[in-house]
Design goal:
5-stranded parallel sheet; 15 helices; 5 strands; globular; MURQ/GCKR; lyase activity; N-acetylmuramic acid 6-phosphate etherase; Glucokinase_regulatory_CS
Length: 310
């Protein structure tokens, strides 16, 4: 046991995300405002670290969108903060892009309980990750994104290795260079954010970087899949008063139509924003709009072009 921990300590000592910063050893003695300034300065370095990985991120997104266009799913897998960020990103896709909850999924080591309470040892098991993916009946059309700040978390690596063996597209997102996770994946994304303000607290800069990259993966994939019209969320699901108001604003921005026209179109299309826009701009009825969108795999621009020939 001692030798195992000794090996792990030595491994952690090689990771930039675990590095000790002696210049911050007295940070607890500083005024609160000064600590906040230091922390804010640290956060300002994260976008540049993400920018350095944009070509790798774009390639991963194109691969993901291609698989999802064939009916595949986007599946995140991680432990601790990384796992929670994956679950968060997945949970925001249905209301934002009207995806089915089964289309974008988040797996966290230890299961749903681990979202709010650490499940000790769960991250150390590659076998657990494989079992979780088997429970989803993984296919070659799916994409699995392993997330780990250190890039050495067995659960994330196990998920990627198992998914790749089954023919799924794999992405490894870490915050250390030359990570085992990136090496295991078809697409390795290594956003090197450097040592943390608090030694080893990777929910800070590393967590921020992971959130930014996951935002890109899900959002740009959905843009590629036709879930937007320009920068408008035309597939938004109006499940509350705020979203119902936003739906009407989106239709107005896309069409310039009057409130009366907007209400009529939304009523005819059962509140589907994309369909309502097509009804107004394409000058077609609701059933025709639905047919055109089905034919164009939900791409509104293509449906609008098709509507001119109806």
């Amino acid at each position: 046991m001692t030798s195992t921990y000794g090996e792990l300590r030595a491994q952690l000592a090689t990771l930039t995300t675990e590095a000790f910063r002696p210049e911050l050893a007295d940070i607890d003695r500083l005024p609160t405002l000064e600590i906040a300034r230091i922390m804010n300065g640290e956060d300002e370095t994260v976008p540049a670290a993400v920018a350095a990985q944009l070509p790798a991120i774009a390639a991963a997104i194109d691969g993901t969108a291609e698989r999802m266009s064939r009916g595949g799913r986007l599946i995140y897998a991680g432990a601790g903060t990384a796992g929670r960020l994956g679950v968060l990103d997945a949970s925001e896709c249905p209301p934002t892009f009207n995806t089915d909850p089964s289309e974008v999924l988040g797996l966290i080591a230890g299961g749903p309980t681990a979202m709010v309470k650490a499940v000790e040892g769960a991250e150390d098991s590659k076998e657990l990750a494989a079992a979780d993916l088997d429970g989803l009946e993984l296919t070659a059309d799916d994409t699995v994104v392993g997330i780990s700040a250190s890039g050495r978390t067995p659960y994330a690596i196990g998920a990627v290795e198992h998914a790749r063996a089954l023919g799924a597209l794999t992405i490894g997102l870490s915050c250390n260079a030359d990570s085992a996770l990136a090496a295991a994946a078809e697409h390795g994304i290594e956003v090197v954010t450097g040592p943390e303000l608090l030694t080893g607290s990777t929910r800070l800069k590393a967590g921020t970087a992971q959130k930014l990259v996951l935002n890109m993966i899900s959002t740009i994939t959905m843009i590629r899949l036709g879930k937007t019209y320009g920068n408008l969320m035309v597939d938004v699901r109006a499940s509350n008063d705020k979203l119902r108001a936003r739906s009407r604003r989106i239709v107005a921005l896309a069409t310039g139509a009057s409130d009366e026209e907007i209400e009529s179109a939304l009523e005819a299309t059962d509140g589907e924003v994309k369909n309502a826009i097509l009804v107004i701009l394409g000058d077609v009825d609701a059933p025709t709009a639905a047919t055109l969108l089905a034919r164009t795999s939900g791409h509104l621009r293509a449906a609008l072009t098709a509507s001119s020939g109806t």
